[in-house]
What does this fold into?
Amino acid sequence: MRKIYTVSIEEANEIAKIRKTVKEKNTDKRLYAVELRGRGKKNQEIAEKLDTSAKVVSHWVSVFKNQGIGGLLGKKKGGHHWNISYEEEEKILEKFEEKAKKGHIVEISEIRKAYEEKVGRKTAPTQIYAVLHRHNWTKKMPRSKHPKKASEEAIEASKKLTLP
It folds into this structure.
């Protein structure tokens, strides 16, 4: 059986004071939902007013009752999610850079394999593209043929017109 949490009017008033200092929109939304719950509103009413679901409102109330106001305050997003340092990435890319300077084709699969050996686990291809972007690598691929190349017949006809 699920537990039904109640929020007192005193807690709702305290939350109303804290909401005046909060600048993040999502944090304010969570606090407002719990405040409305303390003022006697049902989860469904709150959900409709805040354009969310009743389950989410119930979860926010549960978090508030279990963790206090700190559980609802802004969650940090983003950040530095690198597996290895910039310098270590640079070392991996050095051998491929030498190969590329010699005119050889460097494939992402090769770089990914070396990167995974260093990290010790599998990574997504997007991780490798992010590494390449960090190190200002660009995708340059040789063309198989020039897009405006004349047809073989035109080339032969041109050869016949030129004087030896």
The chain has a mean pLDDT of 85. Residues 9-71 form one domain. Residues 116 and 123 are 6 Å apart (CA to CA).
